[in-house]
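Thread: Newbie trying to understand structure tokens

Hi all, I'm a second-year student working on a class project, and my supervisor (Dr. K.) asked me to get a predicted structure for one chain before our next meeting. I've only ever worked with sequences, so writing a 3D structure as a token string is new to me. If someone could post the tokens and maybe explain what I'm looking at, I'd be very grateful. Here's the chain:
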Amino acid sequence: MKTPRLLLVKLCILFFCLPVSSWAGIKSGQSSLKPRIVVLTDIAPANVEPDDMESMVRLLAHADLFEIEALVATGGWNSGGGSYPTGWMDSLKTTIDAYEKDLPNLMKRSGQKGFLPLKKESRKQVLGYWPSPSYIRSRIVLGSAKLGVAQIGEGNDSQGSDLIIKLVDEQDDRPLWITVWGGGNTLAQAIWRVKQERSEAEVQRFLDKLYVYTITDQDVPWHDQKNYAFSSHQWMRETCGKSLFFIWDESAWLSQNGIGSSNWKEYATHIQGHGNLGRIYPKNKYGVEGDTPSYLYVLPNGLNDPTEPEHVGWGGYFRWGMSLDGKTECYTNSSQEVKRISQKYENYFYPAIFANFAARMDWAAYGEGNRNPVVVVNKKKGLAPVVISAKAGQRLVLDASGSGDPDGDALTFHWWVLPEAGNYQGDIAVQHPEEACATVCLPQDAIGKEIHVICEVTDNGSPALKGYRRIIIFPEK
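---
Reply by user tm_fold:
Sure, no problem. This is what the structure looks like when written as tokens:
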């Protein structure tokens, strides 16, 4: 298993600050770098299955938060077990066309006045930078059109697998997140190719850069969903073992589908018809945006470090363990116990996640709207967790009074302990949890343990938006 890394330590400036940052500041690189993501999607026309299109609209409405390295069209459930129809890639182009029309309004959110030259844009992007339509269009490629482990090998290389190898090989210390909305055959082929051509040490260095989040296992035909031996996903887990950071979600996507469907009127009111992106946001056919948790998990909002699956964030909660195939291990939430925990937080965070989307669609439509609070704890700005060593038994004061709001909105505070992310099993008292300054009473028997506290700040804008900061406490003698 890879050693977890506090990725967010590198993200020193809260992206929530960016709306009030100058465009000069963005151009000079004073802000933090975005997380790198690759999307493998079996996107289809809305009359076939609209949920990938829905997720793509939301992704582009948050394009200032992600370095979208590739949009790879692949086989998946939507193609029903057959080859992916290349004509379906037009749905990607349709979404980007709508994004282009909304960009003048979206860019007002961060005061952006123009775009970097395409060559520079293709290097490293900072949080708050809205990528040009030309950049995103240049990242559309076709991956493996067919499904299954039997396709891996000679003759299965594609633009998608070649691009993944190229992206991993770039001189960039950031993880490359592969968000899998369909089948993962394209990624498996990239790994296979590298294994054929490189030494064992070089292969390990390649795998060290890859971080994978799969929305269930869609590298199987729709009618044969539990035939895991058919899937290239099982091949990757079996072949790479603990060398590959692999998340298999069986909870967050189901919550998003179900809660979204039961609240469809909110989408019809606040998403559809808002800007050009809202005009192409399709009515759901089954669930709503089942693939969205794959990038919500990576979204840099101060809540979680995505390289730490047990942190809990907008994309779920995961533990290392046996997968549903009964043969391979990975980070998953498929067991009854872990799914119960993940669903608890998926339900808790859903309103904040939707409000974030709705506010951004207001920007797309009107060029104005609400923006998230900026959370500062103990005078420490940024996205990184606030890490504190303190004596067990003491009353530890946490101060978020330095927090603010770019729109001047009034703020309310909520401090809470996230027990599943830490390893202390007892109760932890938080005094004044609804005030800007809270006090955490550290138990005497917590020496050597790890305690996670979340500072959740909400503004009174419309819709009300949240900002987060994680505090990690290590009680000592």
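A couple of things are worth pointing out once you decode it. DSSP finds 14 helices and 15 strands in the chain. The chain has a mean pLDDT of 93. Feel free to ask follow-ups in this thread.
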